[in-house]
Design goal:
By secondary structure, the chain is α/β, with parallel strands linked by helices. It has twelve helices and 18 strands. Helices cover 31% and strands 20% of the residues. β14 and β15 (258-261) form a beta hairpin. α1 (26-42) runs parallel beside α2 (62-78) and α5 (136-143) packs across α6 (151-163). The longest helix has 19 residues, at 362-380.
Length: 381
């Protein structure tokens, strides 16, 4: 019997509603979406895999929800493309789940709860297991096993149950949203982590023919033949300046993903030079000044009102610093005061993103809020 081969487009980490240091990215996200749609139609894909973090926040603004609905409906109802999606750590599972009882009738499969992961989507030559982001506590509740304290332990139980559903005559694809790194064979007794966060050992995933992941924004973050991140659609921090963003095309006969680049509407750049050169027409006329810039000044002396003066030429400055030392980041009292008045949680989130190249998880953010509240209460005592 002839088996119908399929082609998927793999994408993740849209982060709709995200801002880049205060600058709205809706136009950039809309432009990226239109390129995804065009690639999907040109390549005649049989479905789109969306591996989590459709939204940037668990409580997105009404405008962001409208944007997400327009995009998903356009792909699914207008273009008649099946969607295979999961909730990520930035998504609200309950918000995403609204409407799921009738989604499957249009070929829209959206899993937001752990229990749904054990019901594979049956396609001609593959089984698709859609595993939404989950914390170990969810696995403890589902399996009624309090010993599942860490993510690798919980994932081992999840995969064992999934394998019980494997059809012997089909390939098995997993869609997930988590860190994958290392091995269960490591000699260390400490829990495997990446950037301080729990990770899933890659050998736990060995029985799947392919694993399509979201969560890490760099598509080259993991060098594994059968486990691939598609990466984010846009550059969300200066650490991503050199990265090419896009989607992956996956044929079920070879399971060898091919990268397709997404061109940004407005790119993100870094400039390192003197203040006077930045103001020189011969220099700035060569720059795409409608784009976003992170600027590092090599000047040794403070420059009054430096940010306002630079933004007259480069309106989308997302970061400004000096090579001299961190203390000269703010060049006058007003700028320093603005920094000190920022919400400490926002400062922590920005710092963590710069260091770990990832957002704080919900559990980490909850811990930070509790710690900050404790400090405030102790300071009042």
């Amino acid at each position: 019997m002839e088996v119908l081969l399929m082609r998927f487009l793999q994408t993740a980490d849209w982060h709709l509603g995200r801002k880049l240091h205060g600058f709205d990215l809706q136009a950039e996200q809309q432009a990226a979406f239109e390129q995804i749609e065009q690639i999907a139609l040109t390549e005649k894909v049989d479905g789109i895999i969306l591996a989590g973090d459709i939204y940037d926040r668990s409580l997105p603004a009404e405008q962001t929800v409208d944007l997400a609905n327009q995009m998903l409906q356009r792909l699914n109802l207008t273009d008649h493309l099946p969607l295979y999606a999961i909730a990520g750590n930035h998504d609200s599972a309950s918000r995403l789940a609204t409407g799921t009882p009738w989604f499957s009738s249009t070929g829209f499969y959206l899993h937001t709860q752990l229990a749904e992961a054990f019901r594979p989507i049956e396609l001609p030559d593959v089984q698709l297991f859609l595993l939404p982001y989950f914390e170990p506590f969810a696995a403890q509740q589902y399996f009624k096993d309090d010993s599942l304290q860490h993510l690798d332990q919980a994932m081992a139980a999840v995969i064992k149950k999934m394998k019980q559903q494997f059809a012997p005559n089909k390939k098995h694809l997993l869609v997930g949203h988590f860190f994958a790194a290392g091995s269960t064979q490591t000699a260390s007794e400490t829990q495997l982590t990446v950037g301080g966060l729990a990770a899933v050992p890659t050998d736990l995933l060995a029985d799947f023919d392919y694993v399509a992941l979201g969560h890490l924004h760099n598509r080259n973050a993991l060098q594994a033949e059968k486990i691939r991140y598609s990466g984010s659609l846009l550059k969300f921090s200066l650490s991503e300046v050199q990265q090419k963003k896009g989607v992956l095309l996956l044929d079920t006969d070879t399971l060898q993903p091919e990268f397709r680049e997404i061109k940004p509407l407005h790119d993100l750049h870094e400039l390192t030079t003197e203040f006077t050169e930045l103001l020189d027409p011969k220099f700035y006329r060569q720059q795409p000044r409608a784009d976003f810039f992170g600027i590092t000044l090599t000047d040794q002396k403070p420059i009054p009102n430096v940010l306002a003066r630079l933004r007259e030429i480069y309106p989308k400055i997302v970061a400004l610093q000096r090579t001299a030392d961190y203390g000269t980041l703010f060049d006058d009292q007003q700028q320093s005061q603005q920094f000190l008045q920022r919400d400490p949680l926002l400062i922590l989130q920005d710092f963590y993103q710069q260091v770990a190249n990832e957002e704080l998880s919900r559990s980490q953010l909850s811990w930070a809020k509790k710690a900050l509240q404790t400090v405030r209460e102790e300071s009042k005592a």
